[in-house]
Amino acid sequence: MLRQWQWRFRQWTRRLWVRATLLSLLGVATAFAGILLDPMIPDDVEEIIGADSIEQILNILATSMLTITTFSLSTMVAAYSASTQTVTPRATRLLVSDTTTHNVLATFIGTFLYSLVGIIVLSMEAYGGGGRVVLFIVTLAVILAVVTALLRWIDHLTHFGRVNDTTKSVEEAVRGALESRREQPFLGANPLEDPASDVPADASAVTMAQIGYIQHADMAQLQKAAEEAGALIYIVAAPGTFVHPGRPIAYVSDDRLDPDAVRAAFTVEDERSYDQDPLFGLAVMAEIASRALSPGINDPGTAIDVLGRLVRLLALWRERPADIPVTFDRLYLPAIAIDECFDHAFTPIARDGAGMIEVQLRLQKTFAALYHMGDGAMRRSAINHAAGACKRAVGALEMEEDRERVRAAHKAVAAASGQSR
User: Checking CA distances to 191, which of 46, 76, 128, 370 falls within 20 to 30 Å?
Assistant: First the structure.
């Protein structure tokens, strides 16, 4: 489990300006390195390798990098806009934190500043013959890095911001969250099966002053606070929960535990995060499918593709470990119910695709696949959602032939569960 500062540091490093700033500083430092290394290089080496042409090369680099960076930024913004309109605004956040884009733009900006500083230092005549040699060699390495970045960028632009690429990025983010939650369904705490009955009646409620979504909970910090006070903490608001001053985030068994120590372990922001909240990722996947099923886009193929990805994701839930270690013995947390996963993933698609026969048939096949792969809880959810989707389809489809096809597909799910009718 990541500590709060580690989680904040990870969020910080996902910003574009961080890598751009680091590479820019590296470029500036490299340009000045020639002055320090000047005494170590013999002056006659400059004539041998032609380092006297370095100023012209730096001028070309500075001019071209400014143009390429401006073009790349325009392309990036256009991809963000297209993703917002055709996929979902909630998925654009993953594009913004795309590491390939960050590395390429940081390389371009860093090269531009390196060239600019090199030209300025050359005009000041701060380099001797040895310094020009160092600058020349470094410039050759920079050119190689720029060419590599350009090739990566050209390949990346062929799919960057497209529907399939964005959907794949969301799937990978959800996969990471689900795998983490599968290994630690209670985030290292003790299981809290039913908060309504398992929380002691005399426990004190702790609420947040902020209004928003819990993005992260520092379980180690909560454990430390509970140990110091000799108390137990019952967490009733897991990451992804919308909280406000009237909704408890946790209950504590001992009044000696300072509520502020509990509040400090929770990070509340305006939006949900993919990291500790797999339900958010499933909801975004469903939102992509719903957007594709809207009359303005009318792309049932994307919805069918999303259903296939959802099967792969939810199949991870059946591979939970038999023995779940308890790392934080003074904490209690409810697990994510499989019914919640199905509600977030399939209800919007069943609703918005109720009048499309191809979507409804694939939905029934999806539920059949999850039924055969899942355990008891997943099978019950598959049966219930298959019945609900069939009911929506029968009420929305215009042709009786289509309604019969959906009923037949639903019978296959019902037959597998022994509920054929």
Answer: 370
